[in-house]
Amino acid sequence: MSPTDVDSSTAPIPERSADFVEALARGLEVITTFSSEGSNLTVSDVASRAGLARPTARRLLMTLEALGYARSHDGWYSLTTRVLELGTAGIQVQGTWEVARPHMVRLVDQVGESSSMSQLVGSDIVYMARVPVRKIIAFTVTIGTRFPAVATSMGQVLLSDLDEGELAATLATPPMSAVIPRLAPSGETLRRTLAEVRERGWALSDELLSVGVRSIAAPVKNHADRTVAAMNVTVHAAETSVDRLVSDHLPRLLETAEHVSLEWSNLGLLPLADPTGD
Fold first, then answer.
1. Alpha-carbon distances of 36 from 28, 40, 58, rounded to whole Å
2. Are 234 and 147 in contact (CB under 8 A)?
3. Which of 164, 187, 226, 260 sits at a 20 to 30 Å CA gap from 16?
4. Same domain? 51 vs 189
5. pLDDT tens digits, one per residue of 129-148
6. Are 179 and 257 in contact, with CB atoms under 8 Å apart?
7. Is 220 within the bounds of a domain?
8. DSSP string, 171-236
9. What is the domain extent for residue 175?
10. Cβ-contact 228, 118 below 8 angstroms
11. pTM given for the model
12. pLDDT above 50 for 10
């Protein structure tokens, strides 16, 4: 190997070990150099963007071309649609909600409390994903469970993303949940609450649904930056104070919701059916 063939990149490669295949890592870096701002690139462009020596970038591009992942014309390279195979096959099998599950499991391990995800259906929230812990809460929650949106932290997150017309139509829809909330904010009180939720980016429900049920929720967004789901952490009010819920659990919840939002945003760029409905 000549000196010019040595990768001159100073970009760090995380978690190197004896099993780490650097050539594969560099090949993936080359693929990610292409974007909407640069869908046609020269070898020099790719080398600069990926932090590679030019001969290394050239060999990687030629390999991708030979495998059908790239094409070239007059010295310009572009990706082919075959690169979609690298991610979509597994995701199609896994499903969008299952993409969120590992993040929720990690969150539950961190906080020791249950976490759920829901969507707005009429004036109710409907549970779509859940990672429970063994604790006694006033309600048994399973996938498909409905609660009145106005009395839940996830519902308030979802309602806060609606414009005035959408909100009015949603609130005018009769709830299908069999649960009658302990407290249900309405009118100006609800609108002030939703404005606060919109401003700070999270919602708190302190025993609104039932005595002993306290929860905090954050939005999960799609590639268009619309809130398509909400994620929560639910605690028993006798065990966890509001201060602890906000200081200890909220940062982890917000981080987890951001990770899921990023994954869902990436899914929105792929030619897949989106079960979230957006």
1. 17, 9, 21
2. no
3. 260
4. no
5. 999 987 766 567 889 999 99
6. no
7. yes
8. HTSPP--S---S----HHHHHHHHHHHHHHT-EEEESSSSTTEEEEEEEEE-TTS-EEEEEEEEEE
9. 92-268
10. no
11. 0.68
12. no
